[in-house]
Amino acid sequence: MFGNRSEPPRPPRPVRQANVEVETIPDVTVTSETSSRNAEENIFVNERNLNNSELVQKFEGISTIIAPYFIVVVGLLLMDKIFFLGLFLLVLGMFSLLKISIQDIIIWIDNIKKSL
């Protein structure tokens, strides 16, 4: 089912072509009126994207503040039922709240190893 097949792949079968009438598509020319509308729409879309990016930045700012607290609360709630998962989330949330990175933890472990 998975992995390499024991038999070589088969070449595709030739497709039978039926007698089909092909319609030609008329050429559509863009007038200056439609191009000016498109330019106005593009300006509106660009302004809306700028507003959306400001909204996204505000939302990211709020979520970076709230997310560690949410992780800690979920960890505390899970500690009764699934102790190790709850403890992991609690520690992860505390590290996030205290702005402790993995590199800081590695440096601490190296310092402890050197002192022993």
Q: Keywords for this structure?
A:
single chain, mainly alpha, 3 helices
What would your notes on this structure say?
There is one protein chain. The protein has a domain of 80 residues. It contains three helices and no strands. By secondary structure, the chain is mainly α. Helix content is 66%, strand content 0%.
Secondary-structure topology with pairs:
Blueprint: H1 32-78, H2 83-97, H3 102-115
Helix pairs in contact: 1-2
From the alpha carbons, calculate the radius of gyration and give it in angstroms: 30 Å
Tertiary shape = extended
Query: Average pLDDT value?
Result: 76
Which residues form runs of ≥5 with pLDDT under 50? none
Order of helices and strands: HHH
Task: Give a short account of the largest sheet.
Answer: none
Assembly of the depicted chains:
single chain
Helicity level, as a percent range? 55-70%
**What separation lies between the terminal Cα atoms?**
53 Å
- The class by helix and strand makeup works out as mainly alpha
What's the β-strand tally?
0
The number of distinct helices, counting runs of at least 4 residues, comes to 3
Strand percentage, roughly?
A: under 5%
Short note summarizing the structure:
The chain is built from 3 helices and no strands. With 116 residues, it is an all-alpha fold.
